[in-house]
From TrEMBL:
The lineage of its organism: Eukaryota, Viridiplantae, Streptophyta, Embryophyta, Tracheophyta. It comes from Solanum stoloniferum. Gene3D superfamilies: FAD/NAD(P)-binding domain (3.50.50.60). It holds the Pfam family GMC_oxred_N. This is Glucose-methanol-choline oxidoreductase N-terminal domain-containing protein. InterPro entries: FAD/NAD-bd_sf, GMC_Oxidoreductase-Related, GMC_OxRdtase, GMC_OxRdtase_N, GMC_OxRtase_C. The keyword Cytoplasm does not apply. PANTHER family: OSJNBA0019K04.7 PROTEIN, PROTEIN HOTHEAD. Residues 1-30 form the signal peptide. Residues 126-149, 260-274 form the Glucose-methanol-choline oxidoreductase N-terminal domain. The keyword Flavoprotein applies. Keywords: Disulfide bond, FAD, Flavoprotein, Signal.
Length: 560
């Protein structure tokens, strides 16, 4: 609802304040105070270095870290450290209609940390308890049996671990009309998100400590033996004060890094595990020379076509996925350009702004240029933002990149390269996917929203090329070359993975090769992204590995 005319500014401001108040009321009163439900979550500054040691220290309270911590705490004392804050009172995280606003927030306190890969593609990484499940589109789908078999996982335990997650946070979606053209979701029927952070409700509150705004500086090692031995974690609290958490000397105690595909290799390198030459350039003491840390990075390239409609469409995120025989997935989103706050920011995958940077030379396409456009486009009519996107994503990309250090500050993003479409098979799949999208845009269902013939589709392709989706030089009016279209309009859907892969950085049991008492458990260990969306499998893996570790350590006494 929006009002135009002399009173429009005042009315819409009051309406916005009312909605914000209702959201705040729901967040603070709807299910009781989060502090009562999660009494073990506290600010990092409350930590005492004289606290008892922990059986497990988990670095990263994200998609894998939360279910892992909840599981391990049923039997042992666990410390979970997370650099971000809590999601429970953050309306931009909690409500589907604010999905794009969280991603557009580039402030230092945002739930998402903005970065641009060296490829020129805008991207984000989570910075909040619950990780990527707090800033994603919510789609939930299990990995197929072939993926489970290839990973070497115990299928019985896998099929017990998925339901453990699903019973707590997964919902059946009500399909919006736009979605019918193309699982499950972690958004409930009221549009409220249920993230991995809520899996902490299954923890033993007497054995779990969760510190938020705790930024890990490095893992500490004892290097006096034949192999380096992890002994603790050094972190800074929200005030910049440094603390050290100690690992118990009991047999089986471990530090587990679960900081995501970017965070985990980044932390290993800052701690002295990585390519020797790169570490020495930044005067980092080498604990273990491993040239594979940060290598094998991959991101599923995404290309979209914006389809303007003849009327407003309901807001919807990805609820269904079309699985094709061409090696691509077809997805859809709609309605995220129609509100006043939406027109005031850029949204990456959900951007309906057309022509933002097309007249600016590539080297001048800076964050400042984007911000200038964001301010100027507030006068664009709402009608220009009506519509939705048809998305095509490469299922199993073969192109590979890497992560390298830029500074020794853990708050700074490392240099990240994905090398999109460097493998010719990826480019061929993209072309096939765009052809499928063209057919969908001309289908009977979509003609209910707009008329699409070949001339219209050519215009849509050119509009998509001109959009502000990345910093790659554009080749406008070249719709005859779908290969060029794929390269020009590539964006991310945040399914990047790799950097700490099995057999190169970790063993099949996720223990870091060449080091004692250290594991990595998250998407950085994947060679391929599981299923159509990885979050289900990453949460499952947190539970799965937690149970495996307890069984290894306790045997039948684990009771799991």
């Amino acid at each position: 609802m929006a009002v135009v005319g002399p009173l429009s500014v005042i009315f819409n401001l009051l309406l916005s304040l009312l909605v914000s108040h209702l959201h705040f009321t729901i967040l603070t009163q709807g299910e009781g105070r989060w502090e009562d439900k999660y009494p073990f979550i506290r600010e990092a500054s409350t930590f005492s270095s004289f606290s008892d040691s922990y059986d497990y220290i988990i670095v990263g309270g994200g998609t894998a870290g939360c279910p892992l911590a909840a599981t391990l705490s049923t039997k042992f004392r666990v410390l979970l450290v997370e650099r971000g804050g809590v999601p429970f009172t953050n309306a931009n995280v909690s409500f589907m209609q604010n999905f794009h606003i969280s991603l557009a927030d580039t402030s230092s306190t945002s739930a998402s940390q903005f970065f641009v890969s060296t490829d020129g593609v805008f991207n984000s990484r989570a910075r909040i308890l619950g990780g990527g499940t707090c800033i994603n589109a919510g789609f939930y789908t299990r990995a197929g049996p072939s993926y489970i078999e290839k990973a070497g996982w115990d299928s019985k335990l896998v099929n017990e671990s998925y339901p453990w997650v699903e019973k707590q946070i997964v919902q059946r979606p009500n399909l919006a009309p736009w979605q019918e053209a193309v699982g499950g979701t972690i958004f409930d029927h009221f549009g409220r998100r249920h993230s991995a952070a809520e899996l902490l409700a299954s923890a033993n509150p007497n054995k779990l400590d969760v510190l938020v705004h705790a930024t890990v500086q490095k893992i500490d090692f004892d290097t006096s033996g034949k192999k380096p031995r992890a002994v603790g974690v050094i972190f800074k609290d929200e005030n910049g004060k440094e603390h050290k958490a100690f690992l118990s000397t009991r047999k089986g105690s471990e530090i587990i890094v679960s900081s995501g595909a970017i965070g985990s290799p980044h932390i290993l390198m800052l701690s002295g595990i990585g390519p020797k030459a790169e570490l020495e350039k930044l005067n980092i003491t080498v604990v273990l020379d491993n040239k594979f840390v940060g290598q094998g990075m991959s991101d599923n390239p995404l290309n979209t076509i914006f389809v303007p409609t003849n009327r407003p469409v309901e807001q919807s995120l990805i609820q269904t996925v079309g699985i094709t025989k061409k090696g691509v997935y077809i997805e859809a989103s709609s309605g995220f350009g129609q509100s006043g706050d939406s027109i005031s920011c850029h949204h990456g995958v959900a951007s309906a702004e057309i022509g933002q940077l097309s007249t600016i030379p590539p080297k001048q396409r800076t964050v400042e240029a984007i911000e200038a456009y964001r301010r100027s486009k507030k006068n664009i009519p709402h009608e220009a933002f009506r519509g939705g996107f048809i998305l095509e994503k490469i299922a199993l990309p073969l192109s590979r990149g890497n992560i390298s250090l830029v500074t020794t500050n853990p708050d700074d993003n490392p240099s990240i390269t994905f090398n999109y479409f460097s493998h010719p098979r990826d480019l061929k799949r993209c072309v096939n996917g765009i052809r499928i999208v063209e057919k969908i845009a001309k289908s009977k269902h979509f003609t209910n929203f707009t008329q699409c013939n070949k001339e219209t589709l050519d215009r849509l392709l050119n509009m998509s090329v001109q959009a502000n989706v990345n910093l790659i030089p554009k080749h406008t009016h070249n719709t005859e070359s779908l290969e060029q279209f794929c390269k020009d309009t590539v964006i991310t859907i945040w399914h990047y993975h790799g950097g700490c892969q099995v057999g190169k950085v970790i063993a099949p049991n996720h223990k870091v090769l060449g080091v004692h008492r250290l594991r990595v458990i998250d998407g950085s260990t994947f060679k391929e992204s599981p299923g159509t969306n990885p979050q289900a499998t990453v949460m499952m893996m947190g539970r799965y590995m937690g149970v495996k570790i307890l069984r290894e350590r306790l045997g039948k006494a684990a009771g799991l």
